[in-house]
Amino acid sequence: MQENEEFIEEVKKKSKIVGGLSGEAKQLVDKFSRIAKEKEQPFTDFESEGLLYVTVYDDNNLVYCVPIFSFKNNKKVNLKENIYISEDAKRMEDILRNSKKKQQMNF
Predict the structure, then answer these.
(1) Domain range for residue 25?
(2) Which residue among 15, 47, 49, 97 has the highest number of C-beta atoms inside a 10 angstrom radius?
(3) Is the model's pTM score more than 0.85?
(4) Phi then psi for 92, rounded to 5 degrees?
């Protein structure tokens, strides 16, 4: 029982982490959140392996999970460099894409 409660608390901490972020990270999250809202797409942010990821959509509204901030270096991630995408982020991207496909099939 206590393990379930601890797991639920951990998920709550990771699901919306904006409150405890630095000013620069909050600005980045807000920027990508606004872009998703303008495209009328859902937005999420999450942490994996010391990186803050956000959902980003291309011109065809295909979703990507992109790292935007490094907690280790406490700075913005340069997307022009060779970036590392964690396995968790890849799984999240697949989940979001598959759920979107299922939603489209139901309409």
Answers:
(1) 2-106
(2) 47
(3) no
(4) -60, -45
